[in-house]
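Weekly structure sync, notes
Attendees: PL (lead), two postdocs, one rotation student
Agenda item 3: pending single-chain targets
PL asked that the sequence for the first pending target be pasted directly into the notes so everyone works from the same version. It is reproduced below exactly as submitted, 372 residues in total.
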Amino acid sequence: MSFSQIEWDCSRCGSTVTDRRKYCTDCHSKLTWTCNGSGKSGLYTNYYRHCDRCSYCTPQLEEEKQQQFQALNDKQRPWSEWRRTGASCIQHTGYDVEQVQELYSMCEQPLINYCSHRSEQLTNSTTTSYLSPMNLLVVTLWHLKHYHTERYIASELNLCQPAVNYFLSAVVDILHSCVYPELISLPADMTNRRTPHGHEQNHKLIVDSTFIAIPEPYDSEQRKASYHAKSSTNYALKVQVACDFHHRIVHVSECYHGSVHDITILRESGLLEHVNDSVQIIADKAYVGEEYVANPRNKPHGRELRNEDKNFNRDINSARAAIENINQRLKTYAILGGIYRGAIDDFHKATKIVQVVSALCNLNLNKHPIRR
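Predicted structure, written out during the meeting:
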């Protein structure tokens, strides 16, 4: 496609070019462009810089990119195959076609910008060696859901492994900046919300920690810091998840070493800044010690619990079942449910992954709630 504002020609042989390319097909010298709107001209290497700054060319450039990537979305695999049936889409990504389209609408422009940058870098290539915006999204969802190795993904998509490593990291960053704030946030009206929890209408949030198994660290200090008895490897990263009584994730903490105590994570998460007499948290006995955190009541030494205390504990444990179910749903994403292969000391990246997966889990919770 050629812009009406841009004319192409070869300064060496004088031939006129009808479509945009980098080199002249006759003499193989670099082409020059002329913008009819602004009167500016230059070599191909300065073309995109001009289009980004020129008020005449920018809208047309964006339109061309949109059309180019839309066509690529429709014909490039794996999306061209997975979108044919809802079952195939769910099998690979964990979401139906409608949900994938919803996710894409949240982060479409950053994905297009990333693809534009990649396509400019690969202008000399005769084949399309980059993924379309939609395929970047669905392959990343596929990776998070099944946690295939980058080597396997590269072989399936005919890409090099470093390229896969790079775009998976980039798309997780995009999802974290676009999807996570959209799907996970503390309700602004928590104080006024009514909760179906007996007479305890001040209970608004439910909190629990979960872990991500990691390989055994080489360093003895790291082994000590990362120890977690419930992990299949005995070592883990730990993260805290909070949900409301609509059973939606509303807060996800940063990642910590597996040995860090739950109450420490709660205190450092910033969640306690939002609690008061009217907004209290339900948690297990690992969170004893905070004023606005309700825990199951302990049996007095040598005596039985009163019926009132038994009923209170029953209500607390019934409410806590929701966050435990949510944590189990998070583990259905193999990147969290399996053994994490990323750098175990890169808590920033691990936190992004957990928060992105939590946001994606919320999308499914909206469609397939825990309790009706």
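Discussion points:
- The chain is about 45% helix and 10% strand.
- The CA atoms of residues 164 and 215 lie 23 Å apart.
Action: rotation student to compare against the earlier draft before next sync.
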